[in-house]
Amino acid sequence: MIDPAAVNDSETRPIQPRRRSLLRDAGLAAVGAAAVGGMTAAGLGTASAGATTSSIPMNDVSQLVFVLILKYVTANYYLLAATGQSLGPDDTSGNFSFYTNTVGNFPGKTVIGGAAVPFKTAIFQQYADNIAADELTHLRYLRAVIAPTNNLYPMPVIDMAAVWTTIAVQAQLIVPGQTFNPFADEISFLLGAYFLEDLSVSYICGAVPTLSDASLSEYFGALSGADAYHAGTIRTLLARIGGGGPVAKLSALRQSLSGVVDTGILTPAGTVNIGPFGPQALMLTRTPVEAYNILYLTPGSSFPAGQTGGFFPAGIYS
């Protein structure tokens, strides 16, 4: 793996005690209400109380739901790393069940594992805190947009424990019998973040041309841009501390699971590789199936109702 001692000494300095109240102090409690107002202004639905319809085409709603489920994973990852807390009930419940195809009140499920990362490097902690706040904002906006359509899917059971050892074994970062915990230290945290970030960008960017609503397309474009900043930051930090080898293995695993070409933070010549770009220096994209094959850690899953594994030990239809 990566030796934490490889980090530049000038950046390894005492940091202030962790802010466990990140969610409250970030002023995010009102994000949901503000998002609904913005949604109405953008023509993406209605903010009226008890609304049950929306102008969003159903294909677009499906894309919103699959991005929401992805954000359940990424938001929990960063919130746990930054605060030691996973998403609460207000951010995980829903009014629609994929399994029964009914509308009602459905509580969100649990998150298995995860903990606050014992950061030693100030800049790493600050980035984790910042991305955690961004991910929570994204998730709350998506939920506010989806809710009036009666397709607000509750959070499924999400694994943040055993899944990481499975990833590390499949990527040949460790051998069977060993364990990998991305919350154990800041370097491991960056590797876990890397596995998720490029996936998020490629999927959301790939969804843009499939959307019918112009305002929603604009939002998805901006959302992929925000996630691209996150991904670029993680790639840069890993490049600076010599993470090329482990990152290349994680990229190879994502490629084997999705079938989409994936590139790490170094070129074959050993120079820095800014991003996973195609021949025209554009972001490589993934379809929902390709993205979820990575999340399931199973190629060719195609969303079958009985599919379980990876980050979803009970599937996403439970």
TrEMBL record:
<feature type="transmembrane region" description="Helical">
    <location>
        <begin position="26"/>
        <end position="49"/>
    </location>
</feature>
<protein>
    <submittedName>
        <fullName>Ferritin-like domain-containing protein</fullName>
    </submittedName>
</protein>
<keyword id="KW-0472">Membrane</keyword>
<feature type="transmembrane region" description="Helical">
    <location>
        <begin position="61"/>
        <end position="80"/>
    </location>
</feature>
<dbReference type="Pfam" id="PF13668">
    <property type="entry name" value="Ferritin_2"/>
</dbReference>
<keyword id="KW-1133">Transmembrane helix</keyword>
<keyword id="KW-0812">Transmembrane</keyword>
<dbReference type="InterPro" id="IPR052965">
    <property type="entry name" value="Pigment-catalase-like"/>
</dbReference>
<dbReference type="InterPro" id="IPR006311">
    <property type="entry name" value="TAT_signal"/>
</dbReference>
